[in-house]
Write a structure and sequence with these properties.
6-stranded antiparallel β-barrel, binds flavin-adenine dinucleotide, alpha+beta, 13 helices
Length: 428
Amino acid sequence: MRIGIIGGGASGMILASKLTNHDVTLIERNNKLGKKLLLTGNGKCNFTNMCFDDLNTIFNNDFAINLYKKYDNLSFMNFFKEIGIVPKIETHKNIQYVYPNSNKSIDVYYCLLDKIKSNNVKIEYNSYVKSIKIGSCFNVILDDGRVLKYDRIVLATGGQSYKHTGSDGTGYRLAISLGHNIKTTSPGLTSLKFDFANRKIKFSGKCRINATLNYIDSNNCFSEYGEIQFRDNIISGIPVLNLSSIIRRSTSDNKTKIIRLDFSKSFIECYNNCFSIADKDIYEKSSISLDTKRELVSQLLFDRWQHTKYRHTKDFLCGFLPNEISEVLLNVSDLSNKNILDFKNNDFERLSENIISLELNLSDSMDFDDAQITLGGIDITQVDSNSLESKIVKGLYFTGEVLDIDGICGGYNLQLAYSSASVVADNI
Ligand SMILES: Cc1cc2nc3c(=O)[nH]c(=O)nc-3n(C[C@H](O)[C@H](O)[C@H](O)COP(=O)(O)OP(=O)(O)OC[C@H]3O[C@@H](n4cnc5c(N)ncnc54)[C@H](O)[C@@H]3O)c2cc1C
């Protein structure tokens, strides 16, 4: 049987490496496969995760959940082991991310490529699929005029984020031309732009810091602790990327979106570790009330002030928080221009309040060029969930991000690329 896989990204490569005993061609517009795969996990390729407790939070719909249940993380790790990639689990903040032991996405790329070659898959590089016509077979028409003929075709063209990697949304146009609907697409897992609520403060420079990100609107309640990165009024980091997809999907009519950053966890932990204060462990108790937290942070600030009031006001938080954030916290607490020796109880209270709940207005999320994934895609009601074959065109299959399926940050999207490719490999 002649099988044409359109798109040599993560899901197309995995599928081609699983298809043996067929006449398979991988059609890729670029001069190399897997350009996006090489960028994943900052070049380390976070390909799956060991934490799949709450599938409803991880994936956007039951269709994606069912794909995962058919081919889960252990299946993915075993498949990689078979082709030479030894999985390594790294735990950060209780989440267990899985990478190749070498920490290199390029190793994943070569293991897949060698397996694809050993399956005698033909690879058509620099071959941009312009249209597909159905006759006695599938006629795949390339922009250089060539027509390739197949008995089955798989659309593995990805979404429309990071389009310089090749996925520019043409897959959707191909699907529409074959009678499919597309669920509106938007950028997912993006950074967010912010300003300081009710304050004319500009954040310039860049820094990283651990914080709890809290967000509430009429439909969603989101709270995640992790590293937040700041760069000139743009925030990113895993909690921010995950929140961006929730906000994009939200039907809430809240015009102004406010997030609150809570820096107190590491603040209190640092003090607990260094000074063994009486309230050690209090923070760990999940029942800690906001009032207790306020009181504790105020008390720690006062304690800090007693030891360091010989310093300049601007340096009051120096050594605990990055300077850029300290400056903002002092500024929003109206302390920047106050002599440190004049600090009073209510000053510690205000500063404590902002350390626990620094308010940021979100102006907008970023565009597709900054998005790790695309939300939306081919309408899954038109696709058979057991085989991933189109319900409209027999012999046409879909894998990966071109479908309206996605997951949060942490290896869950490559997991979907694997799960969907495996289902298609079984059923084609
Ligand atoms: C910076 C970045 C980091 C990421 N990190 C992670 C991570 O650590 N873990 C994780 O799980 N996910 C991560 N992701 C998401 C993950 O990479 C994608 O979800 C995954 O690559 C989707 O696989 P795919 O096969 O569906 O699409 P892609 O990998 O996008 O592949 C689609 C392929 O189709 C080709 N193509 C498109 N149209 C045509 C056409 N008309 N003709 C011929 N070829 C065509 C493209 O050139 C491309 O090679 C990251 C994404 C980005 C951008």
